[in-house]
Amino acid sequence: MEILILGKKDRVTPLHLAARNGHKKMVEALLGKGAAVDSREENKWTPLHLAAQNGHKEVVEALLGNYAEVNAKDDQNLTPLHMAAVLGHKKVVEALLRKGADVKARTRKGSTPLHLAAQNGQKEVVDTMLGQEDAEVDTRDDENLTPLHMAALFGHKDVAEALLGKGSDVNARDYLNLAPLHKAALFGHKEVVETLLLEKYVVVDAKDNKNWTPLHMAAKDGHKEVVEALLGKGAAVDARIDKNWTPLHLAAQNGHKEVVEALLGNGAAVDAREKNNWTPLHLAAQKGHKEVVEALLRKGAAVEAKGENNWTPLHFAAQNGHGEVVQTLLLEENLVVDATNNNNWTPLHMAAKNGHKEVVEALLGKGAAVDARIDKNWTPLHLAAQNGHKEVVVKEVVEALLGYGAAVDAREERNSTPLHIAAQNGHKEVVEALLGKRADVNTRNQEGLTPLHLAAYTGQKEVVEALLQKGADVEAINQNGSTPLKLALQNGHVEVVQILLQEYAVVD
């Protein structure tokens, strides 16, 4: 595909200026005084390039009459014919062709004037060049693109019809193995798609280098009318790309409800599995596309389907905080609210870890096990206490869990409680919420560490103060014989040291 760069103004002669502005008499006068007809400016444009670019037919003829080089090339190998063709100056094109302009001339990227005219939808110029004996309708550029590819890519139906009428190969492939139908489908050019589909030998399920068909491309980008046109011509509704995705996977992931419905209405497999065993419902839930989720469920999508690592759609929605999708899934009769993945995480663990209060409440409202354990024996409360979301978010999640009876002193594999974890991570408001629910302020983990030890060790000044206010033992000794003060001293937490000394700590 060619991108044209305008020339610089350096080294422009009076003849260049006169030609560019269409001043025929001035051009003739300058030529009569011996002006160099093929003088070059900075980008090697001749006066003929400029006259052709700006559509000045009479100036073009005057220059050609003075033996201007008709196929002069600039620094991108553009000829005057390229210039006139891309901008649709039909009469200039005809004048150049009469003087032997090369219809097969190529730019540095291999584009012919026909490529550029097709790209810009210059139908009359396309017709003119196709009328030349030496014109090649399926000429290829450096990316193996034909003019028909260009017309399809940019949505020029009339140009596509003209090219096809001259025998252009409807199934021609570029360097990525893309056919014109791929190009038109990708960008949603419905009329071009319909034009291509009228061709007797069109391959509706043509596959590119990654096995994408035109239907995959249209589905991914939400082009409903193109999807319907392709399906109407028998496109394979469950065709697979390299990752084993179907068009339905692509439409579901990208939230294109109408495309999803069109595919399902044409028999798409609602629970098709890709290489990680995800169904379209997994992908829609992961991205939070509620309407797509509803459309899939109406067609019987398996709400309990498990993909890689045994994740369900509910795991995905809970992890990402998609409250509306969670609520939709929770309405399904077959939903398992406490489904576990390979690490024994339930959707509640996911929501608690990521600070999604509304999702936590929705799951608990449907009976989710508030103290369910993952592999390290952590409960959702441990996860909520650990994570460094905004303090208010963590507090709200913790309070929601506690409100549904979460065990405030639940112990994980190292015997730590949520209070240990919140103290260590400096979540003051969470510490206060746990203490408000009568968490044991002096509880010890397997190393004999209290929450105060951990807060002192990590320099959590405000947490230290909150724990002391609730009666934390300032002189507690862990298994290594260290007090909170000793740990604060060892780690250089001066403010914590000062607070502990004020509590009459015994200095070792």
Automatic annotation (TrEMBL):
Q: Where do the ANK repeats start and stop?
A: 10-42, 43-75, 76-108, 109-142, 143-175, 176-209, 210-242, 243-275, 276-308, 309-342, 343-375, 376-413, 414-446, 447-479, 480-508
Residue ranges spanning the membrane: these are none
Report whether Repeat shows up as a keyword of the record: yes
PROSITE patterns, per the entry: ANK_REP_REGION (PS50297), ANK_REPEAT (PS50088)
- Example of a GO biological process term: protein localization to ciliary inversin compartment
Q: Does the keyword Repeat apply?
A: yes
The record, for SMART domains, names:
ANK (SM00248)
Q: Which Pfam families match?
A: Ank, Ank_2
Cellular component GO terms, alphabetical:
cilium
Q: Which UniProt keywords apply?
A: ANK repeat, Repeat
Q: What is this protein called?
A: Uncharacterized protein
